[in-house]
Amino acid sequence: MPDQEAKELRKYEKSLPISLLRAREATTRYFKPFIDHHDLTMPQWRVLRALAEEQALDARTLSERCVILPPSLTRIFRSLTQRGLIAQVDCADARRHRVTLTDTGRALFEEVLEESEPHYQRLAAAFGADRLESLLNLLSELRDTVEDLNAEDAQEDALPRRKAAGAH
What we know:
- The protein has 7 helices and 3 strands, in the order αααβααββαα.
- It is mainly α.
- α6 packs across α7 (129-167).
- The longest helix is centred in the last third of the chain and has 39 residues, at 129-167.
């Protein structure tokens, strides 16, 4: 019977990807009105949020940090630049596209932050500040673990291809 138990699909409500997706959707709905109020999309906000913590970031770093595909990031850069919220920064390596928040962009970031912070505090109080901090730490650990497993899988997949290529 242990083989049968291993083959059973876990309940839909206990599926990790579904649970993470539902939590993301719920928190996005909770904070999205503050973003919408300023005529921003959630991906645009993620870019502003990431830039608020750094002097300037290159497109690759922003793509990874904000979980945005490069073609979408290019459109976001164009839109935020047209609105005067970000500006390109000169870089010794011309192949790297680095951007920073403008004063207008920083002011908008601060305004959204000021509006949304009471709601963040309300969420922390309702869920529990310690539990929220623990959840954030656990999610970071989960991401690192899954990334390590993906890297191991990629190495294992590459090994047979290298052997096959060397055999000819």
